[in-house]
Design goal:
The complex is a heterodimer of chains A (137) and B (112). Chain A is built from six helices and no strands. Chain A has helices at residues 3-9, 12-49, 54-70, 72-86, 89-99, 118-135. The chains are: A mainly alpha (137), B mainly alpha (112).
């Protein structure tokens, strides 16, 4: 192909949409994998409650159909939240709620000047040693 | 917001660094990629086997999941797995409590 025909055949919209399409493909693949994992969780849930037999298969098919095809936006988001809690991400939120790093002055927080300078630290240490000497003579 | 954002950004940066760490390791030691792929394949297979038991269906489902997560979405899965390990093993508590406070050197009587 000569350069002119390459230039004429170049479509800027395709060029812009290429990364968007790649991301969309990745998200689709991720959703497919997530749906399979959700189906596995449904199988586990049904098997835990029914020992075996055809009822397990029927229930898995029915619940799987409803969850994965009929009401996926609702149940998919619910399953995502459930999995996040299941894998312990609630602990992270609780840690953040307890620790409140934004209210402690560290890493540029509100209470500026909370940390000591070297001189202040020396003074503080000297005071502590003096106190200790007073009590443990 | 001025007090909220900096420590949260610092926390996010630490988590992101830990999540990207295996990718840096892969970049430095390319063999590490295959070690991780084998390990993830075993993890996925045992996850499926725990639910479906041993059988042909287990191999099929595990194969599909391994293809999707371990081979197609490897970097995403690696980052997610590291995050899962950090949170699952309770290391997030160490990061959250340890990072922003700077325990030694606080002024006496400072708000905790």
């Amino acid at each position: 192909m000569d350069p002119l025909s390459i230039l004429l055949s170049w479509n800027p919209i395709d060029w812009i949409m290429q990364p968007v399409n790649d991301i969309k493909q990745t998200i689709d693949l991720l959703l497919l994998g997530f749906k399979l994992v959700v189906l596995l969780f449904i199988v586990q849930f049904v098997r835990n409650r029914f020992s075996g037999g055809p009822i397990v298969t029927v229930l898995v098919l029915v619940i799987g159909y409803i969850f994965l095809f009929q009401m996926w936006p609702l149940f998919g988001s619910m399953m995502l939240v459930y999995l996040l809690i299941f894998f312990g991400f609630s602990m992270l939120v609780m840690d953040l709620a307890i620790a409140k790093p934004w209210a402690r002055g560290g890493a540029g927080g509100e209470e500026e000047g909370e940390h000591m300078s070297g001189k202040q630290y020396q003074e503080e240490t000297a005071k502590r040693q003096a106190m200790r000497g007073r009590f443990f003579r | 917001m001025r007090g909220f954002l900096p420590p949260m950004i610092a926390l996010l940066a630490v988590f992101l660094f830990l999540m990207v760490l295996p990718i840096i390791l892969i970049w430095v030691f390319p063999t590490f990629e295959w070690i991780l792929k084998v390990y993830f394949s075993i993890v996925v297979y045992f996850f499926v086997r725990r639910i479906l038991g041993s059988g042909l269906l287990t191999y099929v489902v595990a194969g599909i999941l391994i293809y999707i997560f371990v081979f197609q979405l490897f970097l995403l899965f690696t980052m997610g797995y590291v995050l899962y390990l950090i949170v699952g093993l309770g290391l997030s508590g160490i990061i959250v409590f340890g990072l922003p406070s700077g325990g030694i050197g606080r002024k006496a009587g400072a708000a905790r």
